[in-house]
Design goal:
Elements: H1 2-22, H2 31-51, H3 57-60, H4 62-87, H5 92-126, H6 132-148, H7 157-181, H8 187-216, H9 222-250
Helix pairs in contact: 1-2, 1-4, 2-5, 2-8, 4-5, 5-8, 6-7, 6-8, 7-8, 7-9, 8-9
């Protein structure tokens, strides 16, 4: 049941993404904030899907699923209202300011939900059934996001690719460890998969934030944007290094 709910959330996010695409010509002024919101929801829905595989997820995720549904519903309503106002050629400045505030409020709610439930979701992932496929899922997810946004992050793609490569190496080590321990005795692997999902989520947020800042402030020289990115990626590199150290220890 929880898996079905998680897939339903993923479908709702896809519907929101489609709504954004259909109204893109009328979203000038707030489109980058909306894109950032959608990217964040896609990232979180992927994590929820993984957590939903835990047998206890049906009850543990009910509250968070309800809140995410409301966020998506409010986002769709705001997009429709904004598009309608722009089609009527309502005063641009007032219209943008009002709806930009609403989108920011929705983004803040989505971010708080993710922060408030991050530990509960991580615990569910750590205790979900483990297979080669579930071990590979987080790095495959990040690789997909990087490739989708390759043109938008070309200045920093090499550094992001390094993180992906490190996670691929860790994933290969995890699969070997899983093979040796067996699925029944794979607590260490489950714990690491939870940590990897956390690192992947942070990396997706960093990529989304970089794209948002780049599109909103195109006048900022590339070297300034890249130097700011260097500070954002360092904690993720530290996360990956800690995961690698733990894998080396338990192996």
């Amino acid at each position: 049941m929880a898996v079905a709910d998680a897939l339903f959330i993923r479908d709702l996010v896809s519907g929101l993404e489609q709504s954004v695409e259909e109204n893109r010509l009328f979203l000038i002024g707030i489109k980058y904030e909306i894109y950032d919101l959608v990217k964040g929801l896609k990232s979180f829905s992927a994590i929820l899907h993984q957590a939903s595989k835990n047998q206890r997820a049906k009850y543990a995720l009910k509250d968070i699923m309800d809140k995410i549904r409301k966020v998506i519903s409010d986002a769709e309503h705001t997009i429709c209202m904004y598009s309608a106002e722009r089609k009527k050629r309502t005063s641009e400045t007032n219209c943008i300011q009002r709806f930009a505030g609403e989108i920011q409020s929705i983004r803040d709610r989505a971010k708080k939900i993710k922060e408030d439930y991050s530990e509960a979701v991580r615990v569910l992932i750590c205790n979900a059934p483990i297979t080669d496929v579930s071990v590979e899922e987080p790095v495959n997810r990040l690789d997909e996001v990087v490739e989708e946004n390759a043109k938008l992050i070309m200045e920093i793609k090499d550094e992001v690719d390094d993180v992906v490569v490190d996670l691929i190496i860790i994933t290969a080590s995890l699969k070997e460890l899983l093979k040796r321990q067996g699925a029944e005795n794979s607590d260490a692997v489950k714990d690491v998969v939870g940590k990897i999902w956390n690192a992947v989520s942070n990396a997706e947020d960093m990529i989304s934030g970089y794209i948002l800042e780049k599109e909103k402030h195109k006048w900022v020289p590339i070297n300034f944007r890249v130097s700011g990115f260097a500070k954002d990626i360092q904690p993720i590199r530290s996360q990956v290094y800690q995961i690698y150290s733990f894998i080396s220890y338990v192996s």
